[in-house]
Write a structure and sequence with these properties.
Largest sheet: 8 strands, antiparallel
Distance between the termini: 50 Å
Structural class: alpha+beta
Number of strands: 13
Order of helices and strands: HEHEEEEEEEHEEEEEH
Number of helices: 4
Helix content: 10-25%
Shape: elongated
Radius of gyration: 24 Å
Mean pLDDT: 94
Length: 232
C-alpha cells in the first residue's frame, strides 16, 4: 500500500541471505517455545507472486537476544546472523508503520514538472517552480541561480519525516507543498499544520501523517527571492 523503507528492505534482504541455524531445539524446551511463539510471535510468509515459498513463526527473548523460528511442523530453531549480536526476530515484530518509507515525495528532478509553495499565513511568500525546457523557472525571478534551484529540489525530494503516525488531528494548516510529475501517480500535496516555530510539526500527505523536526524542514522553507542570482 505504501513505499517501503529502503533501510528496512536492506536489513530484510540481509536476514534472508545470511541467517543461519545456531542449533535445533528439542524436548520440553521445544514445546515451551512453540507455545510461546505462537502466542506472542509473528507469522512470516514469503511469496513469489502468488506462490507461497516459505512460512514460519518468529519470536523469542529480546532481553537475552535469543531468536527462534518455528516451522509449520513445530520444528524449532535458534537462529543467528553470523558475526552480529542482535535480536533477529525483532525485525518481524516491528509495528507496521516502521516498515514504511519516511521519505515523503517520490519524485525525481528529472520527472518533476512543477512545484508550488503556498503559505496560508503569508501569501506573499507563495511561489512556483515550473519546468520550461531546458530548465526550471521560478515565478517572479528574472535572474535565476540554477544551483540554488537544483539544491532546493534535491532537498525537497529527499525530505524525510522523523516518524509516521496514525492520527485524525490536523488543526489549521499553515503551509502546502505540491508536486506535479510526469507520472500522475507521483503527484503529491504535503500539508503542514501548527506553526513554523513548532519544534515538531505535523504533516499530512494523502492518507499518511508524518512528524517532522523543525530542523529537517528548514531547507524547504524558502521564498522566491532565495533563487535570485547574487550580483557579483
Amino acid at each position: 500500500q505504501y513505499p517501503m523503507d529502503q533501510g528496512v528492505l536492506n536489513i530484510l534482504a540481509a536476514v534472508f541471505q545470511q541467517i543461519s541455524v545456531q542449533r535445533p531445539v528439542s524436548g520440553p524446551e521445544q514445546e515451551e517455545i512453540v507455545s510461546m511463539i505462537r502466542q506472542t510471535g509473528s507469522k512470516v510468509e514469503v511469496f513469489q507472486g502468488d506462490n507461497l515459498l516459505l512460512s514460519f513463526w518468529a519470536g523469542g527473548d529480546e532481553a537475552q537476544q535469543k531468536s527462534y523460528f518455528v516451522t509449520p511442523q513445530d520444528e524449532v530453531y535458534l537462529v543467528q546472523l553470523p558475526g552480529y549480536s542482535s535480536y533477529v526476530s525483532g525485525l518481524f515484530q516491528m509495528p507496521l508503520s516502521s516498515w514504511r518509507s519516511r521519505e515523503v515525495f517520490q519524485n525525481s528532478w528529472r520527472s518533476l514538472m512543477s512545484f508550488s509553495y503556498q503559505d496560508f499565513e503569508q501569501p506573499a511568500n507563495d511561489f512556483q517552480i515550473t519546468y520550461r525546457d531546458p530548465f526550471f523557472a521560478v515565478s517572479g525571478v528574472q535572474q535565476l541561480d540554477s544551483n540554488k534551484v537544483m539544491n532546493y529540489l534535491q532537498d525537497l525530494i529527499s525530505l524525510k519525516a522523523s516518524s509516521i503516525i496514525d492520527t485524525s488531528y490536523q488543526g489549521m494548516p499553515w503551509l502546502e507543498l505540491s508536486t506535479v510529475d510526469l507520472d500522475p501517480q507521483k503527484n503529491l500535496t504535503l500539508t503542514l499544520y501548527g506553526t513554523q516555530t513548532d519544534k515538531v510539526i505535523l504533516g499530512k500527505a494523502g492518507e499518511q501523517h508524518f512528524l517532522f523536526s523543525n530542523t529537517s524542514l528548514q531547507p524547504i522553507l524558502r521564498h522566491a527571492a532565495y533563487f535570485e542570482r547574487t550580483k557579483e
